[in-house]
Write a structure and sequence with these properties.
303 residues; alpha+beta; Ribosomal Protein S5, domain 2; Alpha-Beta Plaits; 2 domains; 7-stranded mixed beta sheet; 4-stranded antiparallel beta sheet; 11 helices; 35% helix
């Protein structure tokens, strides 16, 4: 290794792009501009893509890892989109060569691409001495994609609006199993199946008034499961029309010993189950992985 290469390696920065999981998802309505107003309790898993940045004169991206082939054209990747938008907002922005180790499934309802873009913004912020609260960074996150602001924070929260309003929550570590049938689901197809027209409301004032108060700090897994059971994922039914295999995944998760709640995340097709203990979650993950080797299965925690 040359002295220059060694110096670049020493100066390289890295970050995790944690999977986002929608524990609940209400579609409040569709705005006149076509965007959907949402309310979602979001948690983050302890499985993640890895993103590395070596400072340099050119902005580039290389993909590695078991799911690199599913990333599509590099030029369309949200990592580069976020970096380019930030360079427009911050004159003289320093950047370099990104390397993405892709382990999360794509078009899966767990914000893989959004989490990657958010990790890129965090790395560029570190490289350029920007605070994560810098309004330029926040604006670029939302411009990159609706899920990027919540992934930028990468902490449990109540997300509202089109994804820009975030209220942090104190969520315990929830043992879980996440399953994706390796069938990509396009978000636009799911919203199309939902069928809202611009200006339509789906959740009325009465629904808002009856919405549960989320558990306070120190609440148990059981407390959270009871609250989460009261609020569905409104995209689950339309997603089933787009990709019926989701029903099989939900059934498999829901019948595992110790499963307290089984639900789809985001617009699918990834589903998750919350368990009463880590031991039960790990056992369920092993069993599902054995019975369905064609599925992507991860047992871990949400927080």
């Amino acid at each position: 290794m040359s002295a220059t290469s060694a110096a670049c390696a020493t100066n390289a920065l890295s970050d995790q792009a944690r999977a986002k999981v929608n524990l609940t998802l209400r579609v409040v309505g569709r705005r006149a501009d076509g965007y959907h107003d949402l309310e979602s309790i979001v948690a983050f898993a302890d499985c993640a893509d890895q993103l590395r940045l070596e400072p340099g004169p050119e902005l580039t991206l290389a993909t590695t890892g078991p799911l690199a082939g599913a990333c599509g054209e590099t030029t369309d990747n949200l990592v580069l989109k976020a970096a380019r938008l930030l360079s427009e907002a911050v004159p003289g922005l320093k950047f370099g060569a990104f390397t993405l180790n892709k382990v999360l499934p794509v078009a899966a309802g767990i914000g893989g691409g959004s989490a990657d873009a958010a990790a890129a913004l965090r790395l560029l912020a570190r490289l350029n001495g920007l605070a994560l609260e810098d309004p330029r960074l926040v604006a670029v996150a939302l411009k990159t994609g609706a899920d990027v602001p919540v992934c930028l924070a990468s902490q449990a929260c109540d997300m509202t609006g089109v994804g820009e309003k975030l209220l942090p929550l104190d969520l315990p570590a929830l043992p879980c199993v996440m399953v994706n049938p390796r069938m990509p689901v396009a978000t636009k197809d799911v919203f199309q199946a939902l069928g809202l027209r611009p200006g339509d409301l789906r959740v009325g004032v009465t629904d808002v008034i009856r919405a549960p108060a989320w558990p306070v700090a120190g609440a148990s897994t059981a407390d959270w499961v009871r609250a989460l059971e009261q609020v569905p994922n409104d995209l689950e039914k339309p997603a089933l029309k787009v990709q019926p295999v989701i029903a099989d995944v939900l059934s498999t998760l829901g019948t595992c010993p110790g499963a307290l709640l089984a639900r789809m995340s985001g617009s699918g097709a990834t589903c998750f189950a919350i368990f009463g203990s880590t031991t039960e979650a790990q056992a369920a993950g092993r069993r599902i992985g054995t019975d369905h080797p064609e599925w992507w299965v991860y047992a871990g925690t949400l927080s």
